[in-house]
Amino acid sequence: MDYITSTAALSLLLGGLGVFGLFRLLQWMRMKAYLRSAVVVITGATSGLGRECAKAFHAAGAKLVLCGRNVEALEELTRELAASPASQGKTHRPLTVAFDLADPESIAPAAARILQCFGHVDILVNNAGISYRGTIADTKVDVDRRVMEINYFGPVALTKALLPSMVTRRQGHIVAISSVQGKISIPFRSAYMDKNTAQGRSPAEVAQEVLAAVRKKKKDVVVADLVPSLAIYLRTLAPRVFFSIMASRARKERKPKNS
Ligand SMILES: NC(=O)c1ccc[n+]([C@@H]2O[C@H](COP(=O)([O-])OP(=O)(O)OC[C@H]3O[C@@H](n4cnc5c(N)ncnc54)[C@H](OP(=O)(O)O)[C@@H]3O)[C@@H](O)[C@H]2O)c1
User: Fold this and answer.
1) Residue with CA closest to ligand 1 atom 4
2) In this predicted model, what pLDDT tens digit does every residue of 47-73 receive, in sequence order?
3) What is the DSSP pairing of strand 63-68 with strand 39-42?
4) Would you name the residues annotated as active-site residues?
5) Do 195 and 133 sit in the same domain of this protein?
6) CB under 6 Å to ligand 1: residues?
7) 19 in any annotated domain
8) How many domains does one find in the chain?
9) Range of the domain at 72
């Protein structure tokens, strides 16, 4: 009797795993097919992560609208993608829309031009952003305003301008690229150009993570090594410990190099 019960339980477990595996496979195939013809808008496509996202989504077959301010860099990327091996007859030639996220007046006309490119938008990747390093006391409010305009208000305005068409079609993804520093604050920096960047993930690796996250419809993905990932949990679970580590780090970084 016991033998029969455990065999039945094992069959049930294996059956359940099989159904789950099949479900995940079907889900993956559906997303792969969706990306093959999805209209993907990438801001900040002229360099770094945005450029790598453009390559990754282009290789996946998406119809791209590439954004940035630098028209020449956008055109050069378009030519590069069109000539890439992934393009051989299977991909769509990317289109470009140049505008300045810091200029509130330019967002609505840019959104209209974006929508004209392929008629709709399936995925908006809000990637463009600037960084800054400095102490709070030495940083002029104008700098804070500019960072917020480009990294926050510009993307919010663009998202709001594109959202109604997504709602009408009952389809759309919005991807917000931020930093670990969007979750925790680190002394002296919202900057990414410090020594940690060189040791971190390459933009090409992160772009693949972004593509995978969209495919799996993940809500929140942290692409970071162990220490920053742990710091995010520490900030929530043990804030006192987190702040004392950060205070000690700030003291160390404030010391002149030769002392
Ligand atoms: N690099 C890192 O280590 C790191 C780490 C964590 C998170 N991130 C995040 O990843 C994203 C990309 O970072 P990245 O290092 O790849 O940046 P990046 O190489 O400096 O590229 C920034 C992009 O943003 C665009 N941009 C800047 N100002 C703009 C404006 N006023 N209007 C429109 N576009 C503007 C630039 O295009 P134009 O010059 O053509 O305008 C450029 O394509 C950012 O959101 C950043 O916060 C980066």
Assistant:
1) 192
2) 999 999 999 999 999 999 999 999 999
3) parallel
4) 192
5) yes
6) 43-50, 68-70, 73, 100-102, 127-130, 150, 177-179, 192, 197, 200, 203
7) no
8) 2
9) 30-219
